[in-house]
Amino acid sequence: MAVLAGQLGYPSTESDIRTRLAALTARGDHGFHVVEVQGVVVGWIGVRAELSLEGGGYAEIVGLIVDEHHRGKGLGEDLVAAAEEWAAKRGAKRLRVRSNVIRERAHRFYERLGYTITKKQAVFDKDVEQD
Q1: Which of 7, 16, 38, 73 gives the lowest tally of CB atoms within 10 Å of its CB?
Q2: Does residue 63 register a pLDDT over 90?
Q3: In what helix (H) or strand (E) does residue 36 lie, and over which residues does it extend?
Q4: DSSP symbol at 27
Q5: Cα separation values, 16 from 2, 106, 131, Å
Q6: Between vectors from CA 55 to CA 50 and to CA 56, what angle results, nearest 5°?
Q7: Is residue 50 one of the residues assigned to a domain?
């Protein structure tokens, strides 16, 4: 999973992924699904349940990656279907996914699966870490 996160542009060690996976799983509002080929993880998806005051409950895909050598074989579709099932079982009426504007191939993928663009926005970050 760490190698795949790196392919997505988020370099991580195996230890990083194990620590994060354990913490997120313990929260109870995240689900993770993997796809394997010959015993090797070649794709994964993360989904979480959300609740907002203004919009109510929904679920959101928070990460999806299929190894670059295994793309175009339907594995991503299988992972999204697993996320949709996870969300529906938790009563979510909607599944959302955010995708960087530069990931045009990903946009076409989601549109092919029936997702529509409902909003464009800017994302602002500020480090708040204190030393």
Answers
A1: 38
A2: yes
A3: strand 30-37
A4: H
A5: 8, 25, 21
A6: 55
A7: yes
Is 42 part of a structural domain of the chain? Answer: yes
State the average pLDDT for the chain: 94
Range of the domain at 93: 30-112
Total structural domains within the chain: 1
Q: List, edge to edge, every strand of the sheet that includes 95-97.
A: 30-37, 40-52, 56-66, 95-97
State pLDDT tens for residues 89-122.
999 999 999 999 999 999 999 999 999 999 999 8
Asked if pLDDT for residue 21 goes beyond 80, the answer is: yes
Burial letters for 16-46: b for 16+ Cβ neighbours within 10 Å, e otherwise? ebeebeeebeeeeebbbbebeeeeeebbbbb
Supply the CATH number for residue 51's domain: 3.40.630.30
Q: Is residue 14 included in any domain, yes or no?
A: no
